[in-house]
Design brief:
Blueprint lengths: L2 H10 L17 H7 L5 H9 L4 H4 L5 E6 L11 H20 L2 E6 L5 H11 L5 E4 L6 H12 L4 E3 H20 L9 E4 L3 H12 L7 E5 L2 E2 L10 H4 L10 H5 L4 E4 L8 H5 L6 E4 L9 H7 L4 E4 L14 H10 L7 H14 L6 H6 L20 H17 L8 H11 L2 H20 L4 E4 L5 H12 L4 E5 L2 H10 L10 E3 L7 H12 L6 H7 L3 H10 L5 E4 L5 H11 L9 E7 L4 E5 L9 H18 L5 E5 L10 H16 L4 E6 L1 H5 L1 H7 L11 E3 L3 H13 L4 E8 L5 E3 L6 H23 L1
Parallel strand pairs: 1-2, 1-3, 3-4, 5-6, 5-8, 8-9, 9-10, 11-12, 11-14, 12-13, 14-21, 16-19, 17-18, 17-19
Antiparallel strand pairs: 6-7, 15-16, 15-20
C-alpha cells in the first residue's frame, strides 16, 4: 500500500481525528456529578478567586498547552490555511501526550495578520500553561513570538525555529567532537533564510560558532551586506561581507552545511569542495537538500544528518519540544529562555553517548546503535529523553530565574520516571534494591544462562552486568558464543564473562555422577546422566543445585516443558510446596499477581490452596502491600452448584486452615474480586471488598487465557512467568520474549536470591 493510501486510511479509520478529551475524574454517580459541576465546583472557583495561583492546583492549566497556527507555512506545503493545517496540529498533540503526558488543544486561527495572532494568544493565556507556535511563516513568526514573550507570563515556543535548532545543535556538538574540531573555528553555511535557519544560526552562536564564520543562503543566493532583494532585519544580522554570492561559493572550504530549505539544492560537486571531515545536515523534509548516499559517494569522510527516519541521525523535533515544555510547565516558568534551550541541547548530546536500551533497538527492527558518526543524537523512541531533557530544562529555568516553582531535582526526576509507566518504576525499584544489597554485603548474585549462544541472551547479559543486577554465566559452545559476542560488538561489555561448554567442563563427570545418584531410583542410569548433562539446562540446574550458581534463567528459545523439566528433576520443589507459574501484571495504578498461569493444568483443591499460599508469600516478599487473595470462579459464594465451584470452596477452607492470617476469600467472580461497588453491595461479608491483588485461577486454562488477554488487550505489562515453590530460584523465560523481559526476570531472580540469603541469615 502506498504512503498516500496508508496516511488517508490512518486519518479516517475509527473515531475521526487523532485526539480526544477524556475525563480524569469519576463521573459515574449523582455524587460525582455534584462535585464535578454544580454545586461542588463553586468551591475551587472561590479559592482561585482569592488566590490566583491555585488555578494550577485545581485545574488542568499547568499541564495544558495550546498548539497555535494560522496555517501560513505548513510542513513543506506552504500557506494552505487553518483547516488544512489541523491534521498537523492534532499530530503535534499526539506527540505531546505520548512522549511527555502533556495535554493539548490545537488552535487553528483564521488570522493572516500577525497582530491578530498575538491578540488571540493573549486572550487564551488564562486557559493554557504554555503556547507552542507552529507552522507560521517568516518573518511574521519572529515578531509574533517576540511580542508574546513580552506580554505573556507563560512559556511560548515556536517549534519550527527552536525545535530544529535544539536537536541539530545537539548533533552538531557531538559531530565536531568526533572529528576533533572546535566550534569557534568552524565555517558554517546555512541553506534557508526562514524561521528554522535563523533560529539554528542564533543557537549555533551560543555553541561557540563565530558570526563572521557564518554564511546564510536563501532562494536568491548568499545573504550579503548591501543586498536589497528579499531582505529583512532577521536576515540582515547574518549578512556576510565576503565575496560569496551563491551556495556553491559558500560551500567551498566550509566545515559544515546546515540545510533547512528545499530538496536537491546541493550537488555532489558542492560537497566535494568542502573542508576535511565535513558535516552535512540536509534537513529539508520529506526530501533532503542532498541524499546521504550522494554525499558519501564523493566524501566518505562526511558526517550526515537528515530529517528522515530511514537514514542515520534523524533530526526530529519530537526529541525536544515535549520535554522542553515538560520542564517549563513543571517549574511554572514564565518563558523558555536561551539557558533552557542550551540545557536541552547538552542533555541530548550527553544522552547520545550513553548505552542505548534494548527497547530502542526493538523499535527499529533490532538495529543496534552506538555513539559515533551514524549515531549523534538519541532516537525519538528513547524514552530516557524525558528524564534527561525535562530535568535539565527545569534546572536551567530555576537557575536562570524564570521558574515560579522550585523543585527538588532528584524528586522531580523520580516523578518523571512514573510517566514512563508503572513497569519502569517498579522494575527500577527492584533493581535498586538488588544493587543496594550487593553494595551492603559485597556479594554479587550469579545467574546461569543455559542459552548462552542466543544473541538476545548475550545482549541481556550485557545489561545485567552493566546495571549491576548479577554476574551472568553463559552455557554453550564457547567458540560460537565468543564469535557472537564479537559479531554484536559486546567484547568490552562481556569481557571476562564466564563461559562453560558443559561436556568440556571439569565439572561434567561430577555433575553426571551426582545427577545419577539423585535419580537412580527413578529410572536413571549413569549413561543417561552423562548424556543429559551435555544439555545446558541440566548442567545449569546442577550448578544451582550444588551451589555453583545462585539462580537460573532459560526458555527464550525452547518450549516451556523442555525448560522446566530439568529444573524439576534436579532442583525440585520446596518441601510442602506446589509449583506454580505466576505473572506479575502491572497496570497504571496497581500490581496484580496471577496464578497459576503456566504449570498445573487441573489442580486439586489441595493444590489450589498451596498455590494461593505460596503466591501470596512471594507477592509479599516483593512488595510492601499486604496480599489479598481472591479464589476465582464463575460462581459467587455458592450461587452455582458445580464440581468446579466446590473445588474452589474446598481450596479456600484448606488455605485458611494452613495460613490463618492470610486474607483470602472465594469462590468469587472476577468483578466481585476487583470492583468495590459490587462487593460492598452484594457481598459485604466477604474478606475481599473489591481490593484483591492476588488472583488464583481454578485451572491453567483460565489463568493462561486471563494473563494473555490482559497483556494483549487490557494494556497490562506482564512480568513472568515466575516459578514459585522451587527449592532454589529458577525461572522460565517466555519463549520469543525480548531482551528487556530477560533483564526484568534477572532482576526478580537476583532479588529472590538476596531475600533467601537474608532469610537464611536470620
Amino acid at each position: 500500500m502506498s504512503l498516500y493510501k496508508q496516511a488517508i486510511e490512518y486519518h479516517t479509520m475509527g473515531r475521526k481525528g487523532k485526539i480526544e478529551v477524556i475525563p480524569s475524574k469519576p463521573v459515574s454517580s449523582q455524587q460525582d456529578l455534584s462535585l464535578a459541576y454544580s454545586p461542588g465546583v463553586a468551591e475551587p472557583c472561590r479559592m482561585i478567586a482569592e488566590q490566583d495561583d491555585l488555578v494550577y492546583e485545581y485545574t488542568i492549566k499547568g499541564n495544558l498547552v495550546a498548539v497555535v497556527t494560522n496555517g501560513t507555512a505548513v510542513l513543506g506545503l506552504g500557506d494552505i490555511g487553518p483547516h488544512a493545517s489541523k491534521p498537523v496540529m492534532e499530530g503535534k498533540g499526539i506527540l505531546f501526550k505520548k512522549f511527555a503526558d502533556i495535554d493539548v488543544f490545537d488552535i487553528e486561527l483564521n488570522a493572516k495578520n500577525p497582530e491578530d495572532v498575538v491578540r488571540a494568544c493573549e486572550m487564551l493565556e488564562p486557559t493554557f500553561g504554555g503556547i507552542n507556535l507552529e507552522d507560521i511563516k517568516a518573518p511574521e513568526c519572529f515578531y509574533i513570538e517576540q511580542e508574546l514573550k513580552k506580554k505573556l507570563k507563560i512559556p511560548v515556543f515556536h517549534d519550527d525555529q527552536h525545535g530544529t535548532a535544539v536537536i541539530s545543535g545537539a548533533a552538531f556538538l557531538n559531530a565536531i567532537e568526533l572529528v576533533n574540531k572546535k566550534a569557534a573555528n568552524m565555517k558554517v553555511v546555512f541553506s534557508g533564510g526562514g524561521a528554522a535557519a535563523i533560529a539554528c544560526a542564533e543557537l549555533y552562536l551560543h555553541l561557540g560558532v563565530k558570526l563572521e564564520n557564518i554564511i546564510m543562503c536563501d532562494s536568491k543566493g548568499a545573504i550579503y551586506k548591501g543586498r536589497k532583494d528579499g531582505m529583512n532585519p532577521y536576515k540582515e544580522k547574518f549578512a556576510t561581507s565576503g565575496p560569496a554570492r551563491t551556495l556553491a561559493d559558500a560551500l567551498k572550504g566550509a566545515d559544515a552545511f546546515i540545510g533547512v530549505s528545499v530538496k536537491d539544492c546541493v550537488t555532489p560537486e558542492m560537497v566535494k569542495s568542502m573542508a576535511k571531515d565535513p558535516l552535512v545536515f540536509a534537513m529539508a523534509n520529506p526530501d533532503p537538500e542532498i541524499l546521504p548516499e550522494e554525499v558519501l559517494k564523493v566524501r566518505p569522510d562526511a558526517i550526515m544528518a537528515t530529517g528522515r527516519s530511514d537514514y542515520p541521525n534523524q533530526v526530529n523535533n519530537v526529541l525536544g519540544f515535549p520535554f522542553i515544555f515538560r520542564g517549563a510547565l513543571d517549574t511554572r516558568a514564565t518563558q523558555i529562555n536561551e539557558e533552557m534551550k542550551m540545557a536541552a541541547v547538552k542533555a541530548l548530546a550527553d544522552l547520545a553517548k550513553e548505552e542505548v536500551p534494548e527497547s530502542v533497538s526493538r523499535a527499529y527492527g533490532g538495529q543496534r546503535f552506538k555513539y559515533g558518526k551514524e549515531y549523534l543524537i538519541p532516537k525519538p523512541f528513547d524514552r530516557r529523553a524525558l528524564l534527561w531533557v525535562a530535568s535539565a530544562v527545569a534546572e536551567a529555568a530555576m537557575k536562570s530565574g524564570v521558574a515560579r516553582k522550585k523543585l527538588d531535582l532528584k524528586q522531580y526526576r523520580d516523578s518523571l520516571e512514573t510517566l514512563l509507566g508503572s513497569t519502569y518504576t517498579i522494575m527500577r525499584g527492584i533493581k535498586n534494591q538488588v544493587r543496594k544489597a550487593c553494595d551492603g554485603d559485597g556479594s554479587r548474585v550469579t545467574i546461569v544462562l543455559p542459552e548462552g549462544e542466543q544473541v538476545k541472551i548475550l545482549r541481556a547479559a550485557e545489561i545485567i552486568r552493566d546495571e549491576q543486577i548479577a554476574e551472568p554465566v553463559l552455557l554453550g559452545d564457547e567458540k560460537r558464543i565468543r564469535q557472537r559476542i564479537k559479531d554484536n560488538d559486546l567484547e568490552k561489555a562481556l569481557e571476562g564473562v564466564r563461559i562453560i561448554h558443559p561436556s568440556q567442563s571439569d565439572l561434567y563427570e561430577t555433575f553426571a555422577q551426582k545427577f545419577y545418584e539423585l535419580r537412580q531410583r527413578k529410572g536413571m542410569t549413569l549413561t543417561m546422566a552423562l548424556s543429559l548433562m551435555r544439555q545446558p539446562n541440566y548442567f545449569g540446574s546442577m550448578m544451582v543445585h550444588l551451589g555453583k550458581a545462585d539462580g537460573l534463567l532459560s526458555g527464550i528459545a525452547q518450549s516451556y516443558p523442555d525448560t522446566i523439566r530439568p529444573a524439576i528433576q534436579v532442583i525440585g520443589a520446596e518441601p510442602g510446596s506446589k509449583l506454580a507459574g505466576v505473572y506479575m501484571m502491572i497496570t497504571k495504578k496497581k500490581v496484580f499477581w496471577f496464578a497459576d498461569t503456566t504449570v498445573n493444568v487441573d489442580p486439586t483443591a489441595e493444590d489450589l490452596a498451596d498455590i494461593a499460599i505460596h503466591t501470596a508469600a512471594f507477592a509479599k516478599r516483593f512488595s510492601s502491600v499486604e496480599p489479598r487473595v481472591a479464589m476465582l470462579s464463575f460462581s459467587n459464594f455458592g450461587s452455582t452448584h458445580h464440581a468446579q465451584v466446590q473445588k474452589v470452596q474446598e481450596a479456600v477452607a484448606i488455605a485458611r486452615q494452613k495460613a490463618p492470617r492470610l486474607v483470602i476469600d472465594g469462590e468469587m467472580q472476577v468483578d466481585t474480586a476487583l470492583v468495590p461497588e459490587v462487593a460492598k453491595e452484594s457481598f459485604p461479608f466477604s474478606a475481599i471488598q473489591g481490593d484483591a491483588n492476588v488472583l488464583i485461577f481454578p485451572d491453567l486454562q483460565s489463568g493462561n487465557i486471563a494473563y494473555k488477554l490482559m497483556s494483549r488487550m487490557g494494556g497490562c505489562d506482564a512480568i513472568g512467568p515466575i516459578l514459585v515453590g522451587m527449592n532454589k530460584p529458577v525461572h522460565v523465560l517466555q519463549r520469543g520474549g525480548d531482551v528487556n523481559d530477560i533483564v526484568n526476570m534477572a532482576a526478580i531472580t537476583a532479588m529472590e536470591v538476596q531475600l533467601n540469603r537474608k532469610k537464611g541469615a536470620t
